[in-house]
Design a protein that fits this description.
The protein is an all-alpha fold. The protein has ten helices and no strands.
Length: 140
Amino acid sequence: MKSYPIEAFERLVLCARENDELAQQWLVDNGYPELSEFWDAFVGVEKSFQWLMQNGYKQLAATVDAMSGDDKAKVFLITSGNRELAAFAEACDGKANAVNWLIQFGHKGWILLAREIQLREKKGEKNFFWNLLNFGNPFR
């Protein structure tokens, strides 16, 4: 799995928060087109899901499926050495054990994005666990 700088995750957070097209363009312009496609696949663009599959990012496509509750996708992520993506998918649902795992292994970027997605999905609902976890998001 490719390692991404925190700046790439900050742009993904903007995508989650505002559907920010400039943030997606930044990802493409800075060598992370797969993250732009990942976001589009997450919001339901089938063409982006297929792009991930056809361009060597099957793990990101599986992450989209795992985020939708597909247990086979989670198993694939774990067995293919992408445990951080499996944990990220579960963290998006606010599962404390997944967030703790991401913290323990230093995956701050995935935590920031999971928190934003969880907040996006739960608009208006308070999630006690995520409210306890605040990394000082620079976009807040």
